[in-house]
Predict the structure.
Amino acid sequence: MAQFDKTAVLGAGVIGASWTALFLAAGKDVCVFDVSDTVEEDVNSYVENAWSTLEQIGLAVEGRRGSLSFASTPEEAVLDADFIQENVPERLPLKLDLYQRIEPHLKPSAVVSSSASGLMVKEMQAGWKNPARFVLGHPFNPPHLVPLVEVLGNDKTDPSALVDAEAFYREVGKVTIRVNKEVPGHVANRLQAALWREAIHLVNEGVASVEDVDTAVWAGPGLRWGAMGPHMLFSLGAGPGGLEEFCNRYADSFHRWWDDLGEPRITPEVAEALAQGVAEEAKGRGVEALSTKRDALIVAHLKAVKDLR
């Protein structure tokens, strides 16, 4: 396996700062570039705030912390880097310009991985003379806490770059999936988009309130989804007959439900109604308090299942 000891993080907003904390916890040296005048203060603050969480979930080990440095240009940041995580804003011209700037300064063995959620790999490859070592490594926010990374390339990607990226992500504590065919939104975003679409429809139709729809998820199937995925869960639901038996039993029911699913659009009126519902659900708690609660619940889950995976 390739050795990835020196890393670079390009773009140090919330996603980039989170990656930085995770890489440092894994003992990787990290060089950060961002156009912000306060990047050093912001990243250092984020890392320090995230460190206790990384310790709680076993990713930060005493004595293993890598070194953190900052570069004034992206070209400087990628020099000698083995793995580069790119997180600049999702404006295609901005990304293409960045790739053109850094490509001449990369080690031949380096992997460049983009955190992009909305752009396609084939679009971003236009910024490269040779995109063989460029991959998609899409995380879920925040990357230092939520394990998933979706890894994707195409026929212009060197297969070894995908293997190396997956190995690197596993080394720093991530769980990877390989996306075999490029579609908008990759895999996980499409799954949560499908659920949210029906959640909005149920609210629009007056079936349940925003809070009760949210409760139906976290107090019901969300608990099971934190353990296993839908195919395996439904397979278990049919006992020894497995998923084939489940399909035989419940196909008609699912077809009926699927035929009745909604197709809402997020209009200003819908957005206003949903926001009002969320405000009622928050019960006066601010963003910081709710984010802290969210992270604490995720940490508790990760700690509870750590030895069972």
Remarks:
- The beta strands are 6-10, 29-33, 68-70, 83-86, 111-114, 134-139, 148-152, 175-179.
